[in-house]
Amino acid sequence: MRKFFWDPIRRKAVVSTPEEEVRQRFIAFLLDRGYPSSAIQVEYRVENLGRFDVAVNAPDGTLWLLAECKANTSSPFAQWSIAWTQLRRYSQALPPLHYFVIVIGSQIWCWNAQTGALEPTFPSYPR
Length: 127
Known about the structure:
By secondary structure, the protein is an alpha+beta fold. Helix content is about 25%, strand content about 35%.
């Protein structure tokens, strides 16, 4: 029997997969930190290149952050490498944004998109 998650952003039940579990935990992480659900998009399309798992818009409508979520596997480095490649490739087709995020299992990494520096703490939603 299939299991499902309730996705509060898409407002529908989605099939439970290892990657979807990571995505739903990250969405809950954002909501717990005061990110408004209205600013969050799931499966954000980037032209004909593909999609990001999660995108967040700033209050002015610009892209605040883009996140790629991967299930924790026996090869986390391979998952990390795939996610990083996706972020860099997709971001080249987008206007400037503030942060890139990679989530693998329960691990979250966040980089400042302008400086490339790894953030010591996860950024708050801009007000």
